[in-house]
Each structure stands twice: as C-alpha cells, then as structure tokens.
Write a structure and sequence with these properties.
Pfam families: ABC_tran. InterPro entries: AAA+_ATPase, ABC_transporter-like_ATP-bd, ABC_transpr_TagH-like, Bact_Polysacc_Export_ATP-bd, P-loop_NTPase. Belongs to the ABC transporter superfamily. This protein folds into 2 domains: 199 residues, P-loop containing nucleotide triphosphate hydrolases (Rossmann fold, 3-Layer(aba) Sandwich), CATH 3.40.50; 129 residues, Distorted Sandwich (Coagulation Factor XIII, Chain A, domain 1). Strand 6, helix 7 and strand 7 form a beta-alpha-beta unit. The strands form 4 sheets. It has a 6-stranded mixed β-sheet with strand order 5-6-7-3-8-9, with helices on one face. The chain has 10 helices and 17 strands. The chain is globular and about 70 Å long.
C-alpha cells in the first residue's frame, strides 16, 4: 500500500544525568569556591564521574503508524506525551534510537515560532533562505514570492531583519513559506495559537486547501475544534506510546478522557495548603437516564480556616472540546472543618451524549481549585423526542451541546406578513 509516512517500531531514548549533592562546609565556601566547583564539575563531566547517576528515559517507544498520501492527520497528547520528540524525528532534526521513519515526498515543518529563520536576515532574505533549505530553486521561490508575502501580510516589514518581528509576524511568515512551497507533506504544530483569530481562520482554510489538493497534513493542536475541523483521523500519544489511532471524533474522546474517571471518586489537590481532602463525584445511581433529568454530584473538602464565600462552578465539555454549559453556585460563611455538599443541576437541557466535567472553586477572588476532566457524564436518550434531538445533533456533526424549548404562539394569518 502506498504511504507518505511510515513509522516502524520507532523509539527515542535520552540519558538523564543526576548529580549527587555534596554538602558545603559553609555559605562562604559555597560562594567563594563556586568557580572552582564549576571547573571541577566540568572536568568530571569530561572525564566521566563514577559518582554521577544516570537514567535511561524513553520519550517514545514502539511507535507504529502509516499515513497515506493526501490524509489529514491530527496528533493529540498531553504535555510530555512525546509529541515534540516525534515531530522532530519526522522533520529529520532528531534521529530515532530504534526503528525507522520512511517518508515519501518533500516535507515542510512549522514546529515553533521562527523555525528555520535567521534572525539577522530580512523577511525577504528568509523567504529565499527557507525555500532553498526545502530544495526549491531561486526561480521557483520567485514565482511564489508575491503569494507568500500577501498571505503573511508583512509587506511593510519585508526588508526588516526578522529579529525585530513580533511573534505573530514570525508565525505568519513561517506558515506562509511552509504552506506555499508546495510540499507533499506539511507538519504544523501548535504555533498557530500565537496568531490572531483572523489569521488562524485563514491558515485553517489554507490547510483545508492543501488536503483537497491531495497533499498530506499532520496537525498538532490542543484545540479540539480545530482538530475536528481539519483532520479525518488522529493519533493519541500517552507516555511515549500511541494508545489510539482512529477516526478523529473517537480519538478526541479518548484524549479528553485520559484524566477522567467514570464518577470522579479520588482525592484532588487544591492550590492552597489550608484546603485539603477534596473529593468530587457524580452520583450516577441517582440520575435517571432520560433527557434533562436532574444531575446530582457530591463535593467533599476540609478547610483549616473560615471561608466567607465559596464560589464553585461545574462546566460541561462535549466530545470536541467545547465547553457548552457552566453552572454556578455560592455558599457563604463556611466554618473550618470537614464538609460534604450535595450539588443538584436541573433544567440543564444537555443533548444526550458524553460530557467531560470541569470543577472550579473560588474564595472571593482567589482560585482554590481547578480541575479539568474530573469525571465523565453519560446521558442517554430515553424517549422518542430525546432520540430525535440526538439524531439531529449527530447529523450536524455530533457537536453536542444544549437544547432549549421554543415557545410557540399562533398568530392571526394577517400578522404573518407584517413587519415591525
């Protein structure tokens, strides 16, 4: 089968060095002898130090996947999951420790702000410099030059060294170059988050065009709406391994559920030391399956001091990462000690489906606790009307959210053509 990218048992390990602490006789010794200590440390590293401890860390392990020509693929994963390491290997700026990557076609990467730019060169010079690095002739770059400049919107600063560019200008020019040199494969990381909303929209449109032209796109983002909009399939990385390779909707659900439990029963760490033993759970057994039935939760915590006003919000996030409902309540004059609260939400009008719950606690203006994906809530269609609402939602792209009833009023026929 034809492929654009093929990863076969790819792994990447790094050796971590842990220096053992050596106590100093005094602060004076630590300060006065810092230079000599540094020299000895460098010498030990050069010659090898038997007292240093080393650890082998695998950022990626046993990575297998295949991307066909023209596919638009999303890459999802928490910070530290191994995304950046994998992208650097795909971009050929890092060699794998095991396995191999096969790539067919010219590849262009936009992994971080300013990638491939020389700060002392002007925008004009960097366009030619980047194009040459990607194998384009000067004539080829010249034919694309005006299109790149127009897309990047940097014509006024074209002859200014890019070291004076803002991060937004860097991104615009970098993306414009990468997207307009006609690569067979384009890799775009989260850098588009730096640009303004208008440029992000324009960039997404360009990536759609790249996909429609039969070129391959690998897109990395924490914005689930962008992932859903741009890609057909997605890979989910956890702790250096691919745990999901499926249609984008299923992959997004898997990604969002990484931290979530079914009912949220577990201790949670607050942001202040005087609040402890925070527990939150969905009382699944007290929730009827039908549409818009009350949702009941239990919140427990211990406080070492009096709280004048506790503000808490519960948010519901759908399977494409959009927060579709926020519920809020206040509780005044909470004394120190252990507390347990029952939280009930009625008339939420959530369309039947799966939602991820977010919890935030505040004491007046101070944030005490914030936790995403604390638990999942599954709402089922129990009636014909429920199933109809769910069906309509899925026909519109399965972007679950809230439903509200429409108040109907029958008007005389003579009023139907009147205007205010």
């Amino acid at each position: 089968m034809s492929y654009a990218i093929l990863a076969e048992s790819v792994g990447k390990s790094f050796t971590l060095h842990h220096l053992r602490n050596r106590p100093n006789d005094s602060l004076r010794d630590a300060l006065a002898g810092s230079l000599s200590h540094l020299s000895r440390s460098l010498l030990r590293r050069t010659r090898g130090n038997q007292q240093d401890e080393t650890e082998e860390f695998w950022a990626l392990k046993d990575i297998f996947f295949q991307i066909r020509p023209g596919e638009r693929i999303g890459l999802l994963g928490r910070n530290g999951a191994g995304k950046s390491t994998l992208l650097k290997i795909l971009s050929r700026t890092l060699e794998p420790s095991t396995g191999r990557i096969r790539i067919r076609g010219r590849i262009a990467s936009l992994l971080e702000v300013g990638t491939g730019f020389h700060p002392e060169l002007t925008g004009r010079e960097n366009i030619y410099f980047n194009g040459a690095m990607l194998g384009m002739s000067k004539a080829e770059i010249g034919r694309k030059f005006d299109e790149i400049v127009d897309f990047a919107e940097v014509e006024q600063f074209l002859d200014t060294p890019v070291k004076h560019y803002s991060s937004g200008m860097y991104v615009r020019l970098g993306f414009a170059v990468a997207a307009h040199i006609d690569p067979e494969i384009l890799i775009v990381d989260e850098v588009l988050a730096v640009g303004d909303a208008r440029f992000q929209k324009k960039s997404i449109g360009k990536m759609h065009q790249i996909g429609q032209e039969g070129r391959t796109l690998l897109f990395v983002s924490h914005n689930m709406n962008s992932i859903m909009q741009l890609t057909q399939r997605a890979l989910v990385l956890e702790h250096g391994k691919i745990v999901c390779d499926s249609a984008t909707g299923d992959a997004v659900t898997r990604y969002l559920s990484v931290d979530a439990t079914e009912d949220g029963v577990r201790p949670l760490k607050p942001r202040v030391d005087w609040l402890s033993d925070v527990h939150f759970r969905w009382l699944r057994e007290e929730t009827d399956p039908g549409f818009n039935n009350p949702l009941n939760f239990r919140l427990g915590f211990a406080t070492e001091r009096r709280i004048s006003r506790l503000v808490f919000t519960i948010g519901f996030v759908n399977t494409v990462g959009a927060r579709v409902l926020t519920c809020k309540a206040n509780l005044d004059d909470i004394e120190s000690g252990q507390h347990s609260l029952g939280l009930g939400i009625t008339d939420h009008h959530l369309i039947p489906g799966t939602y991820f719950v977010q919890l935030d606690l505040w004491d007046s203006a101070e944030e005490l606790f914030s936790y995403e994906n604390i638990c999942t809530v599954d709402l089922f269609a129990a009636s014909t009307d429920d199933r109809l609402i769910q069906h309509i939602s899925r026909r519109r792209g399965d972007k679950l959210g809230c439903y509200a009833p429409i108040t109907l009023q029958t008007l005389p026929a003579s009023e139907s053509h009147q205007h205010d």
